[in-house]
Design goal:
Family: Belongs to the glycosyl hydrolase 51 family.
CATH architecture of the largest domain: Alpha-Beta Barrel
EC number: 3.2.1.55
CATH superfamily of the largest domain: Glycosidases
Subunit structure: Homohexamer; trimer of dimers.
Helix content: 10-25%
Structural class: alpha/beta
Strand order of the largest sheet: 3-4-7-8-9-10-11-12
Keywords: Carbohydrate metabolism, Glycosidase, Hydrolase
GO molecular function, one term: alpha-L-arabinofuranosidase activity
Bound molecules: alpha-L-arabinofuranose
CATH topology of the largest domain: TIM Barrel
Radius of gyration: 22 Å
């Protein structure tokens, strides 16, 4: 199995917006309570935040985290989560049928975000609420002082405004499961009017309108077109959500699912550009893939017993093949670096997440942690359009699937070229020849590999190092020609200088 790749420093797709390595923490399952926040955990700080979780998240260098939902936000009264903790209400939470204690709210999350060095991507409730609650929340969070809501924040101990920059106008408003779901016309209007008011309070914010919950929604396409027709000039991004799994146990087909993501992104960009053309607008809208991941328990019902506090939910256990698929999605996102400016791996901890914790106990990293870590650490700079020649295969849902999924990123400051590559072949290694002619002579910094003989191998609390990357990838270099051996079913990070 042989593939070729030509990389030229002048074939620039775009600078990579670091926010594509964002993630998501929702008031769902044990993401907040028992994930980032567990006051009686041995590593908890004074505010109750688990230090072990902070360290694992810091290592990922996640630049932005979406909060507080997800479906949760569509029933959330943000006022219930601020002010003295002892006065906070316990409420029935209708997105997930749990009891929300409101121990963690906007200010606590802002504090936590500072500790991990990330920005907050706030979402407002356009399910049960609307313009008024949204503009008040912007005033509470971002206005310096001298108004009711900003002074209330100050009275809660937060003199400095949070200055949250990126805001989601609701969540998955096209989904019948959403509290307060809307038609495209209803949502487009409320998004437009809410956006106006929020930007009047703080003109520096950027807004994300909800696109479809998945490309499989019956309203997909019509939704984007109609919503943008109604709010195009007021918003800065359109969202996409995409989840995949191998529940049919067809790995070749599963690893090809990044082609679906690729098509989804291109389609949404096209619809957006069509609206731009119709409106004769100068503005090109960017995309926010603000939920994406492998999700196996998708569609499974909410907790069987209602109104529990933070019951374990959607604690998917990720395999080696899931990590490979995740690598393919990351490469796909990078290939669209000119349009996708924000992307959030959904989610970050305990709920469909790369990081798992045990109550009062250990933290371990799932297989999917590693490709995300590598992309976030090394995938910054300029994404380059590579010319790839790879043998192909057909699978159940996809034709002409290249065995090689790859891209490269050029960090101009340090003059480091990083190649991310997945060998999708399940039984054969691949010889990859890379022509880097425009870079002159290069030398190898490292070739990181994530591989495992068992596609279903997992990491657990007791065997946390079963699937971990190593540095022993086989790459040789002759001037500007790189020859790499990519093991069967492997994720590779080849770093050159
Ligand atoms: O990420 C889990 C859920 O998936 C989110 O709450 C929702 O937006 C999506 O359906």
């Amino acid at each position: 199995l042989k593939s070729n790749m030509l990389i030229d420093k002048h074939f620039v797709i775009s600078s990579v917006d670091k926010r594509i390595y964002g993630s998501f923490i929702e008031h769902l399952g044990r993401a907040v309570y028992g994930g980032i926040y567990e006051p009686d955990h041995p590593t908890a700080d004074q505010q109750g935040f688990r230090q072990d979780a902070i360290e694992a998240i810091k290592a990922l260098q996640v630049p932005i985290i979406r909060y507080p939902g997800g479906n949760f936000v569509s029933g959330y009264n943000w006022e219930d989560g601020v002010g003295p903790k002892e006065q906070r209400k316990r409420l029935l939470e209708l997105a997930w049928w749990t009891t929300e204690t409101n121990e963690v709210g906007t200010n606590e999350f802002a504090d936590w975000a500072k500790l991990v060095g990330t920005e907050v991507m706030m979402a407002v409730n356009l399910g049960t609420r609307g313009i008024d609650a949204a503009r008040n929340l912007v005033e509470y969070c971002n206005h310096p002082s001298g108004s009711y809501w900003s002074d209330l924040r100050i009275s809660h101990g937060y003199k400095e405004p949070h200055r949250f920059k990126t805001w989601c106008l609701g969540n998955e408003m096209d989904g019948p499961w959403q509290i307060g779901a809307k038609t495209a016309e209803e949502y487009g209007r409320i998004a437009n009017e809410t956006a106006k008011a929020m930007k009047w309070v703080d003109p520096t914010i950027e807004l994300v309108a909800c696109g479809s919950s998945s490309s499989g929604m019956s309203t997909f396409g019509y939704w984007e077109d109609t919503v943008l027709d109604l709010c195009y000039e007021q918003v800065d991004y359109l969202s996409l959500h995409a989840y995949y799994n191998n529940n049919n146990n067809d790995t070749a087909n599963f690893l090809a699912s990044s082609m679906n993501l690729d098509h989804f992104i291109s389609s949404v960009a096209s619809i957006s550009d069509a609206v731009q053309a119709k409106k004769r607008s100068k503005k090109k809208l960017m995309l926010s893939l603000d939920e994406w991941n492998v999700w196996k328990t998708i569609g499974s019902s909410r907790a069987e017993e209602r109104w529990q506090i933070a019951p374990p939910e959607f604690e998917d256990v990720y395999t080696h093949e899931d990590a490979l698929a995740l690598g393919c999605y990351l490469i796909t996102i990078l290939r669209h670096a000119d349009r996708v400016k924000v992307a959030c791996l959904a989610q970050l901890i305990n709920v469909i997440a790369p990081i798992m914790t045990e109550r009062n106990g250990a933290l371990w990293l799932q297989t999917t942690y590693y490709p995300f870590l590598h992309a976030s650490k090394y995938g910054r700079g300029k994404a380059l359009q590579a010319i790839i020649d790879s043998p192909k295969y057909d699978s159940k849902d996809y034709t002409d699937v290249p065995y090689l999924e790859a891209i490269s990123v050029h960090d101009e400051e340090q003059d480091i070229i990083t190649i991310f590559a997945v060998n999708r072949h399940l039984s054969e290694q691949m010889e990859l020849d890379v022509d880097l002619r425009s870079f002159g002579n290069v030398s190898l910094l490292e070739h990181i590999v994530l591989e495992h003989d068992d596609l279903k191998a997992i990491n657990t609390k007791d065997a946390p190092d079963n699937v971990v990357p190593h540095n022993g990838g086989k790459t040789t270099i002759d001037q500007a020609n790189v020859k790499a051996l990519l093991s069967k079913a492997s994720w590779n990070v080849i770093r050159l200088q």
